[in-house]
Amino acid sequence: MTNNENEADRAVDQRVKRLEKQLRLALVIGLLFLGLFVLTASSGRTGDEQVFEKIRVRQIIVVDEKGVERIYIGSPVPDPKADGQQIQRIAPVTGITMNDENGNERNGWGIFPDGRQTFCLDYDKGIGEALCLTQGGERSGLMIKDTKQRFNLILGRLAVGNDDDEAKLLMMGTDGKSSIRLQLTDDTGKPLIKVTGDKGESIFETKAER
């Protein structure tokens, strides 16, 4: 065998050895990745889910399959969106809110810094509140509004606008003026029944005598 043939054989042997080392290294790396994949997959199985006694967070955001933020749980919860526009809350709220498929807020329950708590259902397209239950101090009640945000019904002991906070049932027409009021007055303790026309005039009013 000539010298040239010997050198060629040695070069081939060196290349083969280098390939064998590279193959072994690739095999080791592949096995490591496979092991990590098995560990990750097994940790995600339902039967192996971890249970935590406590989780301390400020906010939890739940998204749908499209990545839209649908549920907020927080202290405080994020400011709402209405018809795609971000709106600042009147005060920070601790509670739970739910959004529609476009990320607009549609309902929520929360507690304000002054201790007042509310549960509200909203119209879509950023119209505003449809129904609210509210409680604060000694005052609590139910409010229902139309799509123009005029009050249709007030039930309970609530002060709305220039109205008093006596215990009452107040039903208002779509014109925003006509109304039927059933109320108990604190000063006399007598029930009041009052009917108002579409021009705000008093049609009927009576107080029962004790």
Beta-strand share of residues? 35-45%
Quaternary organisation of the protein chains: single chain
- End-to-end CA span: 132 Å
Strand order in space, largest sheet? 1-2-5-6-7-8-9-10-11-12-13-14
**Cα shape:** rod-shaped
Give the radius of gyration.
35 Å
SSE succession: HEEEEEEEEEEEEEE
Mean pLDDT: 83
SS element count, helices = 1
Describe the main β-sheet briefly.
Answer: 12 strands, antiparallel
The count of strands amounts to 14
Structural class: alpha+beta
List segments where confidence is low: pLDDT < 50 over at least 5 consecutive residues: none
What proportion of the residues is helical, as a percent range? 10-25%
Can you characterise this structure?
The protein is of the alpha+beta class and about 210 residues long. It has one helix at about 5-45, and strands spanning about 60-65, 70-75, 80, 85, 95-100, 105-110, 115-120, 130-135, 140-145, 150-155, 165-170, 180-185, 190-195, 200-205. It has a 12-stranded antiparallel beta sheet, with no helix packed on it. It has a two-stranded antiparallel ribbon with strand order 3-4. The protein starts with a helix and ends with a strand. The model has no long low-confidence stretch (mean pLDDT about 85).
